[in-house]
Design a protein that fits this description.
The protein is mostly helical. The chain has a single domain, classed as Ferritin (Up-down Bundle), CATH 1.20.1260. The chain contains 8 helices and no strands. Helix 2 runs antiparallel to helix 3. The chain is globular and about 45 Å long. The two termini are 26 Å apart.
Length: 190
């Protein structure tokens, strides 16, 4: 499997519900995560924010690809386009934060790279697309929850707000797939 970046939604899914402690950050973000757990400087904020930007670029690409796939009903395309708009707003907020810190925001990859990395060729139905989107949104919610303790205090609130958006997206997608309401609480961040 090709690596998207030091941080991507699929690596979060492989980590499966892991609490993003120092060890979790190291697994997902490399040494930058370990440095954060121990306390570090602005450069690590830039690295983590850029990792989140890469996450948002992937989400934007996923919803763009899904909208043009021909697999979705028009109402589902509308929802996906709305969610893509949310991810674009997240990306823009994160890019502004990186620039305020004096960093350079992470660029998006070519759409063809996302097509390959997301396994788009294996998607054959609307349900397949929705399942992929749900996995990506759950992974993103967990990622943002993990970022809250790692980021400098100026960025806690934005990470928390984005985690809420991702959890909301996951709830809508879960309902669209007919998944039952989970019996246990604390579904994210654990």
């Amino acid at each position: 499997m090709q690596q998207l970046s030091p941080f991507n939604r699929r690596s979060l899914l492989r980590a499966g519900g892991m609490t993003l402690s120092a060890a979790g950050f190291t697994a997902l973000f490399g040494t930058a995560g370990a440095a954060y757990a121990a306390g570090s400087a602005v450069s690590q904020d830039v690295q983590l924010l850029n990792a989140a930007i890469a996450l948002e670029h992937e989400g934007i690409a996923a919803y763009t690809i899904a909208a043009g796939s021909g697999l979705l009903q028009p109402a589902v395309v509308d929802i996906g386009v709305t969610f893509r708009g949310h991810h674009m707003q997240h990306r823009d907020e994160l890019m502004a934060a990186v620039e305020r810190l004096g960093g350079k925001p992470a660029p998006a990859k070519a759409e063809a790279d996302y097509v390959k990395d997301l396994g788009v060729a294996g998607l054959k139905s609307q349900a397949d697309v929705l399942r992929l989107a749900l996995k990506l949104e759950r992974g993103a919610a967990n990622a943002y929850l993990g970022l809250i303790p790692a980021l400098g205090s100026d960025f806690h609130q934005v990470a928390a707000r984005m985690a809420g958006d991702e959890a909301y997206h996951a709830a809508i997608l879960s309902q669209a797939l007919g998944e039952p309401i989970p019996k246990s609480a604390l579904m994210f961040g654990g």
